[in-house]
TrEMBL record:
<dbReference type="GO" id="GO:0016301">
    <property type="term" value="F:kinase activity"/>
</dbReference>
<feature type="binding site">
    <location>
        <begin position="205"/>
        <end position="206"/>
    </location>
    <ligand>
        <name>phosphoenolpyruvate</name>
    </ligand>
</feature>
<keyword id="KW-0670">Pyruvate</keyword>
<comment type="function">
    <text>General (non sugar-specific) component of the phosphoenolpyruvate-dependent sugar phosphotransferase system (sugar PTS). This major carbohydrate active-transport system catalyzes the phosphorylation of incoming sugar substrates concomitantly with their translocation across the cell membrane. Enzyme I transfers the phosphoryl group from phosphoenolpyruvate (PEP) to the phosphoryl carrier protein (HPr).</text>
</comment>
<keyword id="KW-0598">Phosphotransferase system</keyword>
<keyword id="KW-0460">Magnesium</keyword>
<protein>
    <recommendedName>
        <fullName>Phosphoenolpyruvate-protein phosphotransferase</fullName>
        <ecNumber>2.7.3.9</ecNumber>
    </recommendedName>
</protein>
<feature type="binding site">
    <location>
        <position position="84"/>
    </location>
    <ligand>
        <name>phosphoenolpyruvate</name>
    </ligand>
</feature>
<dbReference type="GO" id="GO:0009401">
    <property type="term" value="P:phosphoenolpyruvate-dependent sugar phosphotransferase system"/>
</dbReference>
<feature type="domain" description="PEP-utilising enzyme C-terminal">
    <location>
        <begin position="4"/>
        <end position="292"/>
    </location>
</feature>
<dbReference type="GO" id="GO:0046872">
    <property type="term" value="F:metal ion binding"/>
</dbReference>
<keyword id="KW-0762">Sugar transport</keyword>
<keyword id="KW-0808">Transferase</keyword>
<keyword id="KW-0813">Transport</keyword>
<feature type="binding site">
    <location>
        <position position="182"/>
    </location>
    <ligand>
        <name>Mg(2+)</name>
    </ligand>
</feature>
<dbReference type="GO" id="GO:0005737">
    <property type="term" value="C:cytoplasm"/>
</dbReference>
<feature type="active site" description="Proton donor">
    <location>
        <position position="253"/>
    </location>
</feature>
Length: 321
């Protein structure tokens, strides 16, 4: 089977009926890039920029960040590279960022919430990204957006830095701006958010946890972490539909995007970009080639009317496997 997957390295990521989707990779550092190229990735759907901060003893400089982003976009040539701005907080700490202890770190001061408060740190990152955008196909997304006010504030800082660079005579590329959908409030309000971004990327790792109010690393409640629960499927479908209604790109970069039960459903919903660990990409491309998107759309109609997570697994199993 592995040998058959290898043959798909340069094949298009398309379904049996010829619908193309992007199969992209999640990476943590520029060193992860080789595996993406070896496994025929159509792009990078999530570049977790945290490593730049976590591997340092002080805030990384604009030039250090520029070098990292530039090397990745250049090596991917014209393929899209989605960089997520700093997602610190929750379980990710920085020795040089002293924050008070929190009762609920996952509901606390993290990601875009920090960036919007420490705007000098945010501006440095955005400038590095904008400069790197001249060397490839760079997209930027903001993590943990909860409200339109946050999205607008983040975009305003971005446009200020963009203008500043242009005024300084620096070259910047065409950047697509997007947000992650990890907070259930944004999935519910996806129709409004979709008007103000170029793309949305669903972060199912957090979205499932927040929607089910269950931490999958907590043994006592991990049974509630249900990716195929119709509640989750309805939220995901709503986000994809909202993006398409506005002519925007719908992506996913949580674990679910490379999950073999979820993929047929996501194909049925018309998800545009599936971003996963590099090692799952060829297997997913092989699965795509067996799926008919119309048939999967009908499967989705049944799945969102199901009552339980298990019932959905059974439905997919019966139709696909
Ligand atoms: C997610 O929440 O699904 C996601 C991709 O972000 P992370 O796993 O880095 O929290
Ligand atoms: Mg997340």
């Amino acid at each position: 089977q592995k040998i058959e997957w290898k043959r798909l390295k340069d094949a298009p990521s398309e379904t049996q009926d010829g619908i193309t989707h992007l199969i992209a990779a999640n990476i943590g550092t520029p060193q992860d890039l080789q595996a993406v190229l070896d496994n025929g990735g159509d792009g990078i759907g999530l570049f977790r920029s945290e490593f730049l901060y976590m591997d340092a003893t002080d805030w990384p400089t604009e030039d250090d960040q520029f070098a990292a982003y530039q090397s990745v976009v250049a090596k991917m040539v014209e393929k899209p590279v989605v960089v997520r701005t700093m997602d610190i907080g929750g379980d990710k700490k920085l020795p040089y960022l002293k924050l008070p202890d929190e009762m609920n770190p996952f509901m606390g001061f993290r990601a875009i919430r920090i960036s919007l408060q420490r705007t000098e740190v945010f501006r440095t990152q955005l400038r590095a990204l904008l400069r790197a955008s001249a060397f490839g196909n760079l997209w930027i997304m903001f993590p943990m957006i909860a409200t339109l006010a946050e999205l607008r504030a983040a975009k305003a800082v971005y446009y200020e830095e963009r203008q500043r660079l242009i005024d300084e005579g620096q070259t910047v590329g065409e950047v697509k701006l997007g947000m992650m959908v990890e907070v259930p409030a944004t999935a519910v309000m996806a129709d409004q958010f979709a008007k103000e971004v170029d793309f949305m990327s669903i972060g199912t790792n957090d979205l499932i946890g927040y929607t089910m109010a269950a931490d999958r690393t907590n043994e006592q409640v991990s049974y509630l972490y249900q990716p195929y629960n119709p509640a989750i499927l309805r939220l995901i479908k709503q986000v994809i539909d909202a993006c398409h209604h506005e002519g925007k790109v719908a992506a996913m970069c949580g674990e679910m995007a490379g999950d073999q039960i979820a993929v047929p459903l996501l194909v049925g919903m018309g998800l545009d970009e599936f971003s996963m660990s590099a090692t799952s990409m060829l297997k997913t491309r092989a699965l795509f080639r067996r799926l008919d998107s119309q048939k999967m759309a009908r499967l989705v109609d049944r799945a969102i009317q199901a009552q339980t997570n298990e019932e959905v697994v059974q439905l997919v199993d019966d139709v696909v496997f």
